[in-house]
Design a protein that fits this description.
The protein is mostly helical and 230 residues long. The protein is built from ten helices and two strands; from the N terminus they run H-H-H-H-H-H-E-H-H-E-H-H. It has helices at residues 5-17, 22-32, 42-61, 66-70, 74-84, 90-116, 128-149, 160-180, 190-215, 224-229, and strands spanning 121-124, 186-189.
Length: 230
């Protein structure tokens, strides 16, 4: 049901990476770190990785390595690859966010029901859902936007994404607790949220696969021209 071009490419890329030299493998992973869903859609990213693996294997046959082929400026090369792709998919970004949110709601209510309350219903305030949505949003933005911006940094700058994420989370918690006292207490019926979020997760997964099929209609090698120029 959820098998698509991306899952197939991921499986093949993992298999092919086993045959790549360690130095070339490190370069490929370094380049792929910049391919967040906000810059390149997931299908393009897997095609790019497949092409990089092909470049590494070809360079080894010619007695050289991937670094000699692409040059020392890996960041600029990565940016050129991104420019040469079809860019991000707004639909994929939205589906990924709501998929993450539905999975988080499912997991949190399962844990609360069986570990915290030992019941499928409990008293709480609606603002708790602001916290849930905020946590998912902070993580989603941190992983997709903030972390890639500092991926090549060293020293203190490398830890800036963690500092930003923690700061945003603390602010979110403070806001939630400030609002909490002003909210009416309601009864949370966890069974409905668990069922709804679980079904939502499956539906969103299916829609994501359909979107991948759409993105994969025009199969292209995005770095072929860059490779030929070097």
């Amino acid at each position: 049901m959820f098998k698509n071009e991306v899952t197939l490419l991921k499986k093949e890329n993992l298999r092919q990476m086993e045959n790549v030299k360690e130095d070339d493998e490190d370069i490929i992973y370094e380049i792929m770190k910049s391919m967040s869903v906000f810059k390149v859609n997931s299908y393009d990213a897997q095609v790019i990785q497949r092409d990089l693996i092909g470049m590494a294997q070809d360079s080894e046959l010619r007695g050289t390595n991937l670094k000699n082929v692409i040059g020392n400026d890996i960041k600029s090369f990565s940016n050129e690859i991104i420019k040469n792709s079809y860019g991000p998919s707004t639909i994929e970004i939205l589906l990924n966010f709501f998929n993450l949110l539905s999975g988080y709601l499912f997991g949190m209510h399962i844990l609360s029901a069986y570990l915290q309350y030992q019941s499928l219903s409990w008293q709480s305030t609606p603002v708790i859902y602001l916290l849930y949505v905020g946590v998912v949003l902070v993580n989603f933005i941190a992983d997709g936007i903030i972390t890639p911006l500092f991926i090549d940094e060293m020293g203190f700058k490398k830890h800036i994404p963690t500092f930003i994420s923690i700061s945003l989370f603390i602010i979110l918690v403070i806001i939630t607790f400030l609002i909490k006292d002003k909210q009416n207490i309601i009864t949370i019926k966890a069974q409905y949220i668990i069922i709804g979020s679980g079904l939502g997760y499956l539906v969103l997964k299916y829609l994501s696969s359909l979107n991948i099929h759409r993105l994969a209609k025009n199969k292209t090698k995005y770095i072929e021209d860059l490779y030929e120029d070097n």
